[in-house]
Q: What sequence folds into this?
C-alpha cells in the first residue's frame, strides 16, 4: 500500500536521478557509504515514522502538553517514539564518526527526516531542535561543551532548545534585556525571561540544554552586545554526572493553533526558585567569544530555517497525498455532457477543477521538497568540495537560497493544505480527517524562525547585495546553466527555458533598478512581494531542472513530473509579471497609508 506521508518514488528520483548523491560516496567523508546505506536510512525512517510517529499525531494534537504548576505532562506515546528514534541512531545521522555519528550526507539525512515531519511534526520537533543545538555547539563550542552536552544529546538522553525571543522584544533581538553576570569561576549568572521556547520544559529526557542569548553588562549596545550561553536545566559535572537543578523556571505554556504536541514555553532565568551553589541566577557557560552570540546563533537559526522549510514541505506533501487518495475514491457527480442522472457517479478526481487543485498541490509540494533537498546538497558541497573557491561559491549560493527555502514552502505548502481541505469539501474541515490539522500545523511556519516579512528584508536588504552581489551572481550562474542545458535539449524544454529567461532577466533588472533609485525605504517596503516573486522564479528554475532530469524516461511517474512542470510554468510563473511591475514602480502605497485611515 502506498504511503500517504511522502512518496518514496519521488525521493528516489530527487536523490538519485536529479541531485545525483551516489557520487558523493567517492569523497573521503562519505567513503564508507553506498546506495545501499542511503536506501537503508530512508527505509528505516519510513518504517519508524509510520510505526511510532504517525499513529499518535492526532492524539498529540487533541491532548497537548499540560502544566500543573510543577510538572509538564506529555502523552506517553511521544517518549516511546523518541526512544525509537534515538535507538536507531538518527539524532547523529549526519554527525562525524568521532561523535558517534553515521556521517550521512545532509541530503540523505534531510530526506530521511522528512518522513518524521510528515508523520508527526509535534513529536518530531523535540529531536530536530536538539540536533540543531548540537550542531551549533560542535561548530562553536568547546571540547568541554561537546563532552558534557553534545554527546548526551546525540544519544537521546538530553534535549536541546534555542532561547532568543523575549516578551517585550519579539523578533527584535537588539532589544533583549536578559543579562549575564560574569563570575570569578568563569561561569555566568543569567537573569531574564525568554518567550516561545519550543521544548523548553518536559520530562522526556534526563536534561534540557538551553542555548540562550543574553547581554554581558558593559558590552556594546544592540545586537553587537549579544553573547551566547549554554544553560542546562540540570547542572552537569565534569564527570558527566547530573547535579542540582539550575535556576531555570517554567513560567507557563503557550497554547498554539498547531504544533500542539511540541510544548511551547515561557522560561524565567534567575527568578530564585532554585539557587545553585546558594547564589542567585541561572548558571551559564559562554560559547565562544563575548558579544559574538548572534553570529553563533545564526548557525542554528539558518539550519532551523531550512528545517522549517522541510516541515512545511512535509505537511504540504502529506496533505496532498491524502487529498489525492480521497479524490480517487470519493464518488460524486456525473459527466456533464450528456446529462444523464441515471449514469453512475464518478470519482471526483475526474472533475477538472479537482485536478487543478491536485496539480497545484503537486507542484507546490514536490517543488518545495526539491528546493529543500537542493539546499541540503549545497551543505554537502560546503563540507566536501574539492577547493576553497568551490566551498565559498556554494556558501554564497546557500546564503541567498536560505530565505527562499524557509519562506516559499511555508507559504505555498500552506496553500497546498488549504487546497487539500477544499478537495475533501465538507469533510476537509472536520477533525475526523487529517487535512485540517495539517493546515493548522503549517500555519505556524510562516512565523517560525523569522517571519515572512523578516525573510523578505533579509533577502532584499542583505542577501542580494552582500559581497558586492556575489550571492546573486552565484545563483545567476546556476540558473543560466540550466537554461543553456534546456536550450540544448530543444523541444519543450527549450520552450520552458524561454519563459524562465524572460522572468529571470526581468527579476535581475528590477533588482538593479530598485537599488539604483537610492530609495531604500520604498524598496524595502515591498520586500515581501520581492521575496514571493524571487521564490516563484527560483521554483520555476527548480522545476525546469526536474523536467530535464526526466529526459528519455517514460512512464506515469515521469509523465506526471513533466506535466507538473508545465502547470507551474503556465499557472504559477506568470504571477511574477504584475509583481515585478509593482516592484519596478517603487510603489509607495503602503508607506503612504496613515494610521488614522485604518
A:
Amino acid at each position: 500500500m502506498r504511503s500517504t506521508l511522502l512518496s518514496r518514488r519521488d525521493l528516489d528520483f530527487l536523490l538519485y536521478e536529479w541531485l545525483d548523491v551516489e557520487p558523493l560516496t567517492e569523497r573521503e567523508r562519505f567513503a564508507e557509504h553506498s546506495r545501499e546505506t542511503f536506501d537503508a536510512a530512508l527505509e528505516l525512517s519510513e518504517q519508524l515514522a509510520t510505526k511510532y510517529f504517525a499513529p499518535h499525531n492526532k492524539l498529540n494534537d487533541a491532548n497537548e502538553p499540560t502544566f500543573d504548576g510543577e510538572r509538564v505532562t506529555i502523552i506517553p506515546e511521544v517518549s516511546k517514539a523518541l526512544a525509537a528514534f534515538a535507538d536507531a541512531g538518527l539524532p547523529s545521522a549526519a554527525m562525524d564518526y568521532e561523535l558517534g555519528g553515521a556521517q550521512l550526507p545532509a541530503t540523505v539525512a534531510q530526506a530521511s527526516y522528512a518522513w518524521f515531519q510528515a508523520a508527526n511534526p509535534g513529536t518530531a520537533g523535540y529531536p530536530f531542535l536538539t540536533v540543531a543545538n548540537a550542531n551549533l555547539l560542535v561548530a562553536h563550542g568547546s571540547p568541554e561543551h561537546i563532552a558534557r552536552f553534545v554527546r548526551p544529546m546525540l544519544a537521546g538522553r538530553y534535549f536541546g532548545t534555542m532561547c532568543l525571543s523575549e516578551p517585550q522584544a519579539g523578533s527584535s533581538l537588539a532589544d533583549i534585556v536578559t543579562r549575564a553576570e560574569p563570575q570569578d569561576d568563569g561561569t555566568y549568572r543569567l537573569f531574564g525571561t525568554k518567550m516561545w521556547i519550543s521544548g523548553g520544559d518536559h520530562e522526556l529526557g534526563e536534561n534540557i540544554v538551553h542555548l540562550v542569548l543574553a547581554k554581558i553588562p558593559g558590552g556594546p549596545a544592540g545586537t553587537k552586545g549579544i553573547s551566547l550561553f549554554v544553560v542546562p536545566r540540570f547542572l552537569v559535572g565534569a564527570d558527566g554526572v547530573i547535579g542540582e537543578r539550575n535556576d531555570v523556571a517554567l513560567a507557563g505554556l503557550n497554547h498554539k493553533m498547531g504544533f500542539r504536541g511540541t510544548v511551547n514555553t515561557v522560561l524565567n532565568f534567575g527568578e530564585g526558585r532554585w539557587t545553585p551553589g546558594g547564589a542567585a541566577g541561572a548558571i551559564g557557560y559562554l560559547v565562544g567569544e563575548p558579544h559574538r552570540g548572534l553570529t553563533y546563533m545564526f548557525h542554528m537559526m539558518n539550519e532551523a530555517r531550512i528545517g522549517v522549510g522541510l516541515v512545511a514541505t512535509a505537511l504540504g506533501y502529506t496533505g496532498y497525498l491524502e487529498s489525492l487518495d480521497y479524490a480517487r475514491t470519493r464518488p460524486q457527480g456525473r459527466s456533464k455532457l450528456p446529462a444523464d442522472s441515471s449514469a453512475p457517479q464518478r470519482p471526483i478526481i475526474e472533475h477538472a477543477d479537482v485536478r487543478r487543485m491536485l496539480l497545484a498541490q503537486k507542484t507546490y509540494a514536490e517543488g518545495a521538497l526539491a528546493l529543500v533537498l537542493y539546499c541540503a546538497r549545497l551543505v554537502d558541497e560546503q563540507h566536501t568540495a574539492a577547493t576553497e573557491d568551490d566551498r565559498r561559491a556554494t556558501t554564497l549560493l546557500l546564503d541567498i537560497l536560505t530565505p527562499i527555502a524557509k519562506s516559499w514552502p511555508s507559504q505555498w505548502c500552506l496553500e497546498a493544505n488549504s487546497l487539500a481541505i477544499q478537495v475533501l469539501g465538507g469533510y476537509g474541515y472536520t477533525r475526523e480527517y487529517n487535512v485540517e490539522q495539517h493546515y493548522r500545523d503549517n500555519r505556524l511556519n510562516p512565523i517560525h524562525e523569522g517571519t515572512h516579512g523578516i525573510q523578505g528584508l533579509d533577502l532584499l536588504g542583505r542577501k542580494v547585495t552582500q559581497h558586492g552581489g556575489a550571492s546573486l551572481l552565484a545563483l545567476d550562474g546556476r540558473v543560466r546553466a540550466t537554461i543553456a542545458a534546456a536550450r540544448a535539449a530543444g523541444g519543450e524544454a527549450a520552450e520552458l527555458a524561454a519563459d524562465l529567461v524572460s522572468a529571470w532577466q526581468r527579476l535581475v533588472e528590477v533588482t538593479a533598478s530598485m537599488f539604483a533609485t537610492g530609495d531604500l525605504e520604498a524598496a524595502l517596503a515591498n520586500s515581501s512581494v520581492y521575496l514571493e516573486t524571487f521564490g516563484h522564479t527560483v521554483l520555476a528554475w527548480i522545476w525546469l531542472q526536474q523536467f530535464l532530469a526526466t529526459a528519455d524516461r517514460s512512464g506515469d511517474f515521469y509523465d506526471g513530473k513533466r506535466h507538473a512542470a508545465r502547470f507551474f510554468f503556465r499557472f504559477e510563473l506568470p504571477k511574477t509579471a504584475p509583481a515585478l511591475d509593482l516592484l519596478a514602480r517603487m510603489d509607495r502605497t503602503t508607506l503612504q497609508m496613515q494610521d488614522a485611515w485604518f
The chain has a mean pLDDT of 96. The chain has 19 helices and twelve strands. Residues 453-591 form one domain. The first strand starts at residue 66 and ends at 67.
